[in-house]
Structure formats: structure tokens, C-alpha cells
Design a protein that fits this description.
This protein folds into two domains: about 150 residues, no CATH class; about 90 residues, Immunoglobulin-like. It is globular, with a radius of gyration of 26 Å. Strand 5 and strand 6 form a beta hairpin. The termini are far apart. The protein has three helices and 17 strands. It is of the alpha+beta class. The N terminus is likely disordered. The chain has a four-stranded mixed beta sheet with strand order 7-2-1-16.
Length: about 290
């Protein structure tokens, strides 16, 4: 017992020395951050069969005060009174400064034309934006043909037959370099995606491949699978957005700039792209 007591006393003595020494390791460091430069943020997705819509906003500093009222928040971020047009097949399509809400996805837009985007996989779409201060934003894109989902298969875990996973199969054109975005939603598109990532076909050894999920789903769950056929501009943009989210708030992470396909004189980031996809809804059953 006396030997054990001596060990306890020695441990406490060493611990006290260690903790007292650690006090010298604490030091306040002041970081001189550069002044934040606001940017214009543009997002426009051309979906065949849906109206021409565009979201134009202002970025804000990470440390800027956050407006508490919804009206104040919208007024602070929305960039209004710009001139927006999209040229297609030698025709100029004007987008007026008005709100448009997509009830299916929960997305808000502040420039709109009720004309539906044509299902044209050949011709280009040219964007022209002039801000109230006279700066310009320009971009060009095409809509890529849909890559259809071949099938979706549900498998139940052998050890726990109440949990299921899904595999979504598709066929890739091996003669072209293709890019994809894959999302899985549970219940509704308004919910945050269970899966959301981009990839290109260099990762697949065959033209027929599948995207899988973990065995996280039960009987009665509704899964919404979407395969977007995207261009390289959108692939780079969305991957840079995801990397930026991962590095946000990480003191050891490297800053991840947003990669855009926007040109012009304005200090703008974002993307102008076509958005073609195939979607399948599956209810988990035995």
C-alpha cells in the first residue's frame, strides 16, 4: 500500500510540473486579415422544359453581421436592377428582374423568363449580364444529352435484413470524356441530399457501371436517384464548392477558391451551365 501511495504522489508531482509548464504554451496570436472584397455570385441552370431562370447575389464577409429579418437578408444579398439576357439561335431572350420559386427543389431566383428552355443538344446559349454599375458578366454553355439510368436494384443486408442499400446502373459512352453529378434524396428533393458528388468516367474501367449507397434504408423509404450529365465547367465548379465547404472553419485547411466559367469585367464567381438529368424514384420493398 505504501509503494502504491508513493507512485500516486510521484504521478501527481510530475503532472503538476507538466501542467505548470504548459501555461507557457498558451499565447494569443493576432491575425491581420486582409480587407474582404465583395463579389457577385451568379448561378444559372438551363433545364429543358423549365423557364429561363437566374440567381444573382452579392457575397458577404464571413465576419459580417447577419441580418435577422428575412426582408433585410434578401435586400443585402440579392443583386437587383441588372440587365440579363440569354442569346439562343440568334434570338435574344430577356430575363426580367422578378422572383421565381421552384417548389420542387426549394430554390429561389431573381431573374426570370417564362419561356421554357428548349431541348437542344447542339446549339450554344450565350449569357450577357450588365450590372447597375455598368460591369459585365458573360458565359457560354451547351445542354448535354441525358444519360439514362439503366436500372436501380435494392439489396438487403445479409446480417440485418431490415436494412437495404441501392445500386444505380448506367451506360457511359466510352468514346467521349463524360462528367456526372450523382444525388440521392430521401423522401423529397427539398431535403438535404443523402449523397451529392461529382465524378468523371476515368474512374470506371467499363462502359457499364453503378453508383451505390450504404445499407441505411428501411422498408417504406422513398429514395430519389438523379444522374446529371454535366460538362467540365460545372464539374470543376461543383467540386471546388464542395472543397470550399470542407475547408471552411478548418484552421489547418488550405483556402479553396471557387472555379467559375464566367467572364466579363465584373468581379464575379459562379456558373452558367446546362442541366440535363435522368431521375428515378424507388420505394424500398422486400
Amino acid at each position: 500500500m505504501r509503494l502504491e501511495a508513493n507512485y500516486v504522489i510521484l504521478f501527481l508531482f510530475v503532472s503538476s510540473l507538466f501542467l505548470s509548464g504548459c501555461g507557457d504554451l498558451e499565447k494569443d496570436i493576432l491575425v491581420d486579415l486582409p480587407e474582404y472584397e465583395n463579389q457577385i455570385v451568379l448561378e444559372a441552370y438551363l433545364e429543358p422544359g423549365k423557364p429561363f431562370r437566374l440567381l444573382l447575389t452579392n457575397s458577404a464577409s464571413y465576419f459580417a453581421p447577419f441580418p435577422q429579418e428575412e426582408d433585410q437578408f434578401l435586400q443585402s444579398i440579392l443583386l437587383q436592377d441588372a440587365t440579363v439576357s440569354i442569346t439562343y439561335n440568334n434570338e435574344v431572350i430577356e430575363l426580367t428582374n422578378q422572383f421565381s420559386f421552384d417548389a420542387e427543389t426549394g430554390k429561389l431566383f431573381n431573374y426570370f423568363n417564362q419561356r421554357n428552355v428548349p431541348e437542344d443538344y447542339e446549339k450554344s446559349f450565350d449569357l450577357q449580364v450588365t450590372t447597375p454599375t455598368g460591369e459585365t458578366i458573360m458565359a457560354t454553355t451547351k445542354i448535354l444529352p441525358v444519360v439514362p439510368i439503366d436500372s436501380t436494384l435494392i439489396f438487403f443486408d445479409e446480417d440485418q435484413d431490415t436494412l437495404a442499400r441501392a445500386e444505380t446502373y448506367l451506360t457511359d459512352d466510352g468514346d467521349t470524356h463524360n462528367f456526372y453529378r450523382r444525388t440521392v434524396h430521401l423522401g423529397s428533393l427539398e431535403n438535404e441530399a443523402e449523397q451529392d458528388f461529382v465524378t468523371d468516367d476515368v474512374f470506371f474501367e467499363t462502359e457499364k457501371f453503378f453508383f451505390g449507397t450504404a445499407p441505411d434504408y428501411t422498408i417504406g423509404d422513398t429514395l430519389i436517384f438523379t444522374i446529371y450529365h454535366i460538362d467540365q465547367d460545372y464539374f470543376q465548379f461543383w467540386r471546388s464548392v464542395q472543397l470550399s465547404i470542407l475547408s471552411n472553419g478548418n484552421p489547418f485547411g488550405q483556402p479553396s477558391p471557387i472555379i467559375s466559367n464566367l467572364g466579363g469585367t465584373a468581379n464575379a464567381i459562379g456558373v452558367f451551365t446546362g442541366l440535363s438529368y435522368d431521375r428515378e424514384v424507388t420505394i424500398i420493398e422486400k
